[in-house]
# Entry
Amino acid sequence: MMSRGLPPAQGHSAGWKPSPWMLKASQFKVHCLKQRIMIQSVSAVVPVLDLMIGQIVLAKAGHRDTYRPVHSRLTNSSRPRDVAQAIFNQTGCDCLYLADIDSFAGANPNWAVYNELLNLGFGLWIDADWMTGDRCNLISDKIENPANLKVILSSETLCNADQFVKFDDLLARGIEPIFSLDKKGDSIITQPGELAGMSPLELVQLAYRHGVRSLILLDLDSVGTMAGIPGEMDGLGSLIQEIANELKDVRVISGGGVRDATDVQALLDHGCRHVLVASAIHECRLTPDDISLFKVTFGGSHEIV
# Structure
């Protein structure tokens, strides 16, 4: 994905220090513009933006009624454009996970924010309620620049196996789908219906049969807490390993509770291909050097991404 063409973020908080990446990013942007290069790789870390009422908020433990505008050491702004720029300046990451919180409460998808970030060159993985009405079918008409778009369908919006045909529909339109298996405590979150009686692995296998090759495993209780990640044999940790071992061509993605680079590397060692991070980035606990040196275990070997 092309590097950002945004002005520098304004209003940095006291004590903020620019990342060494900022100068490199600026030089790289010029090179990309001259060469018209499109960068398709995605780093091991995928920063998270939680969108609510047009602002980026800090999500914590899945309690959406308590979310408030983000307070970041990177910028005083909560505008999506500014926060995305500040994250890129700090980390060099230009692929973002965007959760449209309002859509899960009945609001229409925020097409304007999606298009703004996509048109600025960011890659977006958009997690929204795509199952209400005709939203999923509107994506091709509403998104102006879909080349760097991935659409996340989460288990909390699904109730029966027939709905998994949406994954096939997205693939037929050239849009890569991601299945997000959301849990809270010991329970998988789904809508009432047949899916509620299925095991996590059965849900993953169902998505796999409908063409899904990227999977998010997320425990909402840990989101935004910086309380650490699950151990190797904990429920989520063991599930990550089970899926990574059984479905070797699936990219497993997880996050929640990440404190620092050690936690990111631990999730990668569990079998994750990418790690979702928000709070640790806003607290400046991850550096560009950290991100450039993460090692991913994939297909039985290590690689640096």
About this structure: The domain at 43-304 is CATH 3.20.20.70 (TIM Barrel). The radius of gyration is 18 Å. The chain has one domain: 43-304. Confidence is low (pLDDT under 50) at residues 1-16, 20-40, 299-305.
